[in-house]
Design brief:
globular, six-stranded antiparallel beta sheet, alpha+beta
């Protein structure tokens, strides 16, 4: 956990099936992993997660920190679990800052 994360109390996301939470997971798969790795994952669902309360970030923007655990289908059609961290920043327009995306367990292609 980074120093920044330790300042913000993360709480379990009560409604993990909330369309907004599911959309964040899908954005993470499409915008972070698939573009950076060259591997095309297909988003399945967010299965668990943590969320901070809103806090004031740089430039007086409101920020919410998310830690999500999600399932995505690999090129080999295998469902695999990934962990991602992202910030949702609002200051006029809402933007997403993707901090990390990695498999929960190492993935070895068959």
């Amino acid at each position: 956990m980074s120093i920044e994360e330790s300042r913000h109390r993360l709480k379990p996301i009560i409604d993990i099936n909330d369309p907004h939470v599911q959309a964040l997971g899908e954005l993470a798969v499409e915008n972070l992993y698939s573009k950076n790795s060259g591997e095309k994952l297909k988003f399945v669902r967010v299965v668990n997660g943590l969320k901070s309360d809103k806090y004031i970030g740089p430039g007086f923007t409101e920020v919410i920190l998310y830690h999500l655990v999600l399932e995505a289908k690999t090129n080999e059609e295998i469902n695999w679990t990934y962990a991602t961290k992202l910030e949702e920043v609002s200051g006029g327009l809402i933007r997403h800052v993707f901090l990390s995306f990695e498999p929960v367990l190492p993935y070895y292609k068959p």
